[in-house]
Amino acid sequence: MLMRCVAFLGLLCLAMPSLAATPPANAASAVVTEKADTPRTTSSGTQFVAPGGWTVRASGPKITLSPPESGSQAVLVDVAATDPDAAVAQAWKLYAPAKTWPLEVANDLSPRDNWDQIRVYDYETSANDKRSVTAIAYRRDGQYTVLIYDFDNAVGEKRASQLRAIYDRLLPKGYKRESFAGRKAHPLDAARVETLKSFVNDARKAYDVPGVAIGLIDHGKVVFAGGLGVREIGKPEPVDADTLFMIASNTKALTTLMLARLVDQQKFGWNTPVVEVMPSFKLGDAQTTREVQMRHLICACTGMPRQDMEWLFNSRDATPESVLKALAGMQPTSKFGELFQYSNLMAAAAGYAGAHVLYPNLELGAAYDLAMQKQVFDPLGMRLTTFDYDRALLGDHATPHGRDVDGHTAVASMGLNDSIRAARPAGAAWSAVSDMLRYVQMELSDGLLPDGQRYVSKDSLLERRKPNVAMGTTATYGMGLVVDHTWGIPVVHHGGDMAGFHSDMLWLPDQDVGAVILTNADSGYYLRGPFQRRLLEVLFDGKPQAQGDINAGVKRLKAEIAAERRRLAVPADPAAVAGLGTVYRNAALGSIQVQHDGKSTVFDFGQWRSEVATRKNDDGSVSFVTISPSVDGFEFVVANAGGKQRLVLRDGQHEYVYVAAP
Fold first, then answer.
1. Closest C-alpha to 391, from 419, 429, 417, 438
2. pLDDT tens string 511-547
3. What DSSP state is assigned to residue 411?
4. Which end of the chain, N or C, is more open, meaning fewer C-beta atoms within 10 Å of its C-beta?
5. Which helix (H) or strand (E) holds 107?
6. Which pLDDT tens digit goes with each residue over 374-407?
């Protein structure tokens, strides 16, 4: 489902702590609030990191980790059991929450980090619970450590980076994760390139992705650029190196590259307050408005939360100016530099502010398009890359695909993808592998062009990779770029996610190796992590893990789709449909036109539309859920009150109430 993509349109500045073992918390009950991320162990010796600012309560085999907000907790429980189901049952008894939830689906992840088995249990919560509940059973030599995640959605989204700090270093007793630090990388010769191509093609087929384009660079040379599969399901035209895909949030790094050029040209500095560059810039918090510097617009570190619904739903008449105006009503939910919180609208403001300096008399969108063409695309020779949707769709382009309600791959509408145009510095570029490799080559050469000419200063280029905010214990976010040290070496990358298009670009600066992967289906999202891991395995003779990730991932996805399908009524329940109004309105998101097409019920949001199913929730409420390919998963809860017909839509930290028009 679209809304389950972890970086839709797509992550922390603390020093990495030592993972030396601390005394096990298995004696008398103890309570401590950590001042910083702190390595700890459970009663059985399982290693984990307690996030800074969180309270740790240890009692026998149970450790409860609580964020500053009340009512949410991650619980680690050590148990001896015959199987993971029994282990999880024991863990719930020891946790003993006030409320429990029915199990929705359980399945295994691919084992890693010396665990013999990792099994995930997802629980069925209702939208009005505003809560997510999951348990994960980790087994090593007959001993289990169970992690229970029981979080308010708003807290979970806000503190996702700190939650990652817990589970990305959850390791068996005494185990040290595989590291490629100090190893010499193999060259990407013909045999290794073929290994990677075969892996991607098999993964593509396993996830039913119609088409994938990949590119590989080794020591400045493109060793492969091409396609696998087709541009559109049921049609013969193949994907090639010049096939255009939406690259979504990979646009952000291109935007910050434009800003780096302007820093070199002394148009402003990274530390220049945004209001000096664009006096009209305004956030909902006056103090934050004054503090925001150019670097902060795209650092995910200002405390401004993800707030995508405004541009996803109210896009019919949206403009760059209306996007910036929307920022004026947004409030930070964490302190500067405290937590990673991803904001597409802030990233859009970054591109528009830079372009405004260059072309102050042009409309913001036109100014940005021209700035990117002159400062990025033309100098790098990215002749295909464009923000012109009409141009892209008339040429060699990939068609987006999603899954229908029964999990079958189907062509998706471009309607939702049109919504990002007004916020295009955050994710509206179309590009091809051939063009993206030119960009990655420049990054690997520290700002030089192929002819040796200096394109951007090394200082300005690398400033974009410096950590602004932590993402767990192994990765940091810079300016539109992630630097990940999970495997002991820096991997610079960023993903991109729009409806039916999912991509990643990455490079290993120490090894002078780079790669790009572009896909034309929502399930392409699941290829990105394994592709990166398989590249590392091929380069460093790493332990085989990527193929297991694909195999387990396919099984898990199919199980999740089946579990969700069982809860849906398609077509929508006639009794629930009969209670709907004709038009609903929300001041921030615009309107919903309720339409009927035979037995089907359709919600039309203006720029895009979807058939809806109904779901009866455990709390007695009824939800209408979008089910059309690539726009599935948006949930509208019927909440009629005071004689008024209402539908409630929520994201992690916001709630939007639609009221039926008279």
1. 429
2. 999 999 999 999 999 999 999 999 999 999 999 999 9
3. E
4. C
5. strand 103-109
6. 999 999 999 999 999 999 999 999 999 999 999 9
